[in-house]
Amino acid sequence: MAEPAEPFITKSDFAYTTLREKILSGEFGPGEVLNQATLARTIGISTTPLREALRRLKSEGLVELDAHRDARVTELTAEEARDLLELRRSLDPLAVALAAQRRTKSDIQEIRAAVQGLEPLPSDPGVDDLIAHRRFHSALYRASHNDLLIATLDGLWDKADRYRRLALEVVRGDEERDRTTAEHHLLVEHVVAGDSDAAAAVMHQHVSTSLGAKAASRLGVSPVATPRALP
Q1: What percent of the chain has pLDDT over 70?
Q2: Mind giving me the DSSP string for 127-195?
Q3: Are 47 and 93 members of one domain?
Q4: Residues 128 and 43 grouped into a single domain
Q5: pLDDT of residue 3
């Protein structure tokens, strides 16, 4: 592979982005061993920037490092699936409630652009599918104009992508997919209209029946009702 080019500033950035994409896309699956020497040759860098990249991925909970030279993609766990679901049931409704109060004209333009042509994730989503789905939710988050909340939800989204893949192993019917699409459009409608309560209610339902919730169920987490968070 050629030397990293812009917009990557360092080889470590290039390695981090490359490995992170492979993990989130499912190319490197949960529990898979990542041999550092092999990875370095494949990516076309030395082991020093690779180790820096792996340390960053470890800080995000995506890999584990042992005392030798191998890394391992972090396993999916029922506990993490539960934690993600509990946080998102509270924070996502809060974000869209705030968005309904604080959205600007440019926020509305971005939200409407992101929902255009957005389809529920297919059974084997590619990186582009995941990016499109994230773009929509990120547009809603950013419209809250709460930087700490946006950063927190962005971090949760990164971890949740791997659990979405687990849920997608079970084929969804047309009714479920249509409901997801309808909820996306309702979220836009309520945020644009400035209806905080309605936006939060739809988002709470959206998260509670989400792929993350299905993944948690598959891993043995019993559904637990949590109160909606409103500003």
Answers
A1: 91
A2: HHHHHHHHHHHHHHHHTT--HHHHHHHHHHHHHHHHHHHHHTTSPPPHHHHHHHHHHHHHHHHHHHHT-
A3: no
A4: no
A5: 40
